[in-house]
């Protein structure tokens, strides 16, 4: 029994050392494989036996090949991945916004605004010079074009982020399918945990898929005793056993562009997250870029309202022979402040002047705009048309687009003055800008066709600059649309807010990356392959194998 036992022990030792060399060789072969986890051959002492009053050992036995993996550390890395990739996506969005703003360059919006108001100031100094009025129109056109360009750039960036989100969702669906498939393969190969070894190669592939998935979205994982890993995000399952739940798309219109939103395919619950690459892209699309789009829209509408309210109450060197509102309405019978105009007119009125060229006389009529909400007789566009049509030498009509048109008889001109209601500006009559948003803002085509219509005065001839004086200061006037803040201050606040948010996000990103790098360093120490250590281990196994072989040859 003694020699047989010795041969058995030595033979088992040869098998163990051979297995150890195979495991070490696997580690060496995958030293540079991304996501590979070092494998260890676990061994333990065999049960002893008694013979002749003595207890002899029977060598060692293998307890399986298992990965050297800290599961808790992996979960921390997954969370760190989501933080880092989400922050990087937001950082990129802030960089795009700052590039669109182009502050501190000659083409930024604040510089163009200064050039516009500067051109108006030249009209204040020399209102009788028509070229000065032409410069105002040119500078106004450049300002409007810059706003349009900014909005188009924002929309393009949002479309780009949307495409990125769509690509990430496709990748998510592929990854959860891969993880579910690997779950099945791992359970089958490991016999549901009955085998003491782990399917290291398959587990490394699954771990790599989980790592990439955690970069895209904030996931939570739970490993079961049979080797399966379930994956969840929030309260929704992505992978359960071998079943994967996908994200499915539905499209909505948001701020003038179509965007892709998502829900879970099984539960139909709405998918929302602000973390991970996909959460950062959604936040960039809807939050950062979307908010900037809203701010630009608010700024543009306030600009149009401020300038047009002032301009509509003034007069040019000549009057209009005919004029059509640039803004229409669907229902011309409702009160003007309920008609869905860009901004609501107020209770008040305006003066309309009919100038007779033949006699060089002007007849002024006051048009009451009743919007006090009393008596059920608030002024509608139909009412306004009737009032204007009743004035001598004028005719008024409403076209199919709900726009008011006013025409003077031959030899007569139309001028406007002192609109306390804002009706003219709301309708787009005698205004500087046309359009109602950042995509449509432009200098009124009527002014472009004849710069003499630029309303620099209040009716005292070519040298009258009183309306231009007020126009020159419009950027400093408090705006109701901006909650009492001036256009100048609003723009400054937006630019400052974006810069501060970008700096804060950049600081967060640095912290997130440092934390992730430290976790990856720990993972490398714990689960990575050191070629030096493996070489030493192989030498030890070789020496052990040689010693066991000598025992066999000796016996």
Unreliable parts: none
Q: Give the helix/strand class.
A: alpha+beta
Strand order of the largest sheet: 5-6-7-8
Main sheet properties: 4 strands, antiparallel
User: Radius of gyration from the CA trace?
Assistant: 39 Å
Principal-axes geometry comes out as: rod-shaped
Distance between the termini: 13 Å
Number of strands: 20
**Which percent bin holds the helix content?**
40-55%
Measured by DSSP, the beta-strand proportion falls in 15-25%
| Overall mean confidence score, pLDDT | 91
In DSSP terms (H or I, runs of 4 or more residues), the helix count works out at: 12
Explain what the structure shows.
With 555 residues, the protein is an alpha+beta fold. The chain is built from 12 helices and 20 strands. Strands 5-6-7-8 form a 4-stranded antiparallel beta sheet, with helices on one face. Strands 11-15-14 form a 3-stranded antiparallel beta sheet, with helices on one face. Strands 13-12-16 form a 3-stranded antiparallel beta sheet, with helices on one face. Strand 5 (220-223) and strand 6 (229-233) form a beta hairpin. It is rod-shaped, with a radius of gyration of 39 Å. The model has no long low-confidence stretch (mean pLDDT 91).
């Amino acid at each position: 029994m003694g020699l047989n036992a010795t041969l058995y022990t030595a033979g088992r030792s040869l098998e163990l050392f051979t297995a150890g060399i195979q495991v070490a060789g696997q580690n060496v072969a995958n030293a540079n494989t991304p996501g590979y986890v070092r494998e260890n051959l676990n061994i333990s002492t065999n049960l002893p036996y008694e013979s002749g009053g003595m207890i002899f050992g029977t060598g060692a036995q293998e307890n399986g090949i298992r990965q050297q993996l800290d599961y808790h550390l992996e979960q921390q890395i997954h969370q760190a991945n989501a933080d880092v990739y989400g922050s990087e996506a937001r950082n990129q969005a802030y960089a795009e916004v700052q590039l669109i703003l182009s502050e501190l360059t000659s083409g930024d919006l604040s510089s163009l605004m200064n050039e516009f108001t500067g051109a108006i100031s030249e009209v204040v100094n020399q209102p009788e010079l028509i070229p000065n009025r032409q410069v105002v129109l040119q500078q106004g056109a450049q300002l409007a074009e810059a706003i349009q360009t900014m909005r188009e750039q924002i929309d393009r960036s949002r479309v780009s982020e949307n495409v990125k989100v769509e690509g990430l969702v496709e990748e998510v669906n592929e990854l959860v399918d891969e993880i579910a498939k690997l779950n099945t393969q791992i359970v089958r190969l490991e016999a549901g945990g009955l085998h003491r070894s782990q399917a290291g190669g398959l587990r490394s592939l699954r771990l790599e898929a989980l790592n990439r998935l955690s970069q895209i979205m904030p996931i939570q994982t739970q490993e079961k005793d049979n080797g399966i890993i379930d994956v969840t995000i929030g309260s929704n399952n992505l992978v359960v056993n071998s079943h994967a739940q996908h994200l499915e798309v539905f499209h909505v219109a948001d701020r003038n562009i179509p965007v892709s939103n998502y829900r879970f395919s099984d539960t139909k619950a709405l998918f929302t997250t602000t973390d991970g690459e996909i959460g950062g892209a959604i936040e960039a699309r809807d939050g950062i870029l979307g908010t900037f789009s809203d701010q630009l829209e608010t700024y543009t509408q306030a600009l149009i309202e401020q300038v047009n309210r002032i301009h509509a109450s003034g007069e040019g060197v000549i009057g209009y022979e005919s004029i059509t509102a640039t803004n229409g309405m669907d229902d011309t019978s409702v009160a003007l402040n309920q008609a869905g105009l860009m901004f609501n007119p107020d209770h008040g009125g305006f003066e309309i002047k009919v100038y007779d060229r033949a006699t060089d006389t002007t007849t002024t009529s006051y048009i009451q705009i009743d919007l006090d909400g009393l008596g059920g007789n608030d002024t509608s566009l139909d009412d306004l048309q009737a009032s204007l049509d009743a004035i001598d030498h004028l005719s008024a009509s409403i076209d199919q687009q709900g726009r008011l048109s006013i025409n003077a008889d031959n030899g007569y001109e139309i001028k406007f003055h002192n609109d306390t209601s804002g009706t003219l500006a709301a309708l787009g009559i005698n205004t500087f800008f046309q359009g109602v948003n950042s995509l449509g803002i432009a200098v009124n085509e009527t002014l472009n066709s004849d710069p003499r219509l630029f309303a620099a005065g209040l009716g005292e001839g070519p040298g009258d600059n009183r309306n231009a004086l007020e126009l020159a200061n419009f950027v400093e006037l408090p705006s109701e649309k901006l909650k009492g803040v001036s256009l100048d201050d609003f723009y400054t606040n937006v630019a400052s807010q974006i810069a501060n948010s970008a700096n804060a996000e950049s600081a967060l990103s640095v912290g997130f990356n440092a934390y992730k790098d430290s976790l990856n360093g720990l993972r490398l120490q714990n689960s990575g392959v050191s070629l030096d250590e493996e070489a030493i281990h192989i030498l030890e196994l070789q020496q052990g194998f040689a010693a066991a072989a000598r025992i066999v040859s000796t016996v």
